[in-house]
Amino acid sequence: MSAEYENITRLIYRCIDEMNEQLPEESQLAKNSATVLVGGQGGLDSLGFITFIGLVEEKCEDEFSLTLALADAAASAEGDEAFETVGALATVIEKRVAAPKN
Description:
Elements (H helix, E strand, L loop, with lengths): L2 H18 L25 H19 L6 H5 L10 H13 L4
């Protein structure tokens, strides 16, 4: 696991902390790379998921000076799996942070 991946994971965990402040205890997300974000076992409904992704994009811009449109990942080859778990999301972000800047 790279240092960049670990930084991204910590960023996502901070976003989880912020989301959990708004969620009832039984719906709160665990800070774990295997935590399902969306789907049958996901802890977030559609509005919560959109809010969470927006928060992650905002934090990535602040932390890495990188503007992400994570919704583009769902339309790309990465597909819906890009958002399935915290670990998958961190991997997608890591690839985008490491990509050459135009």
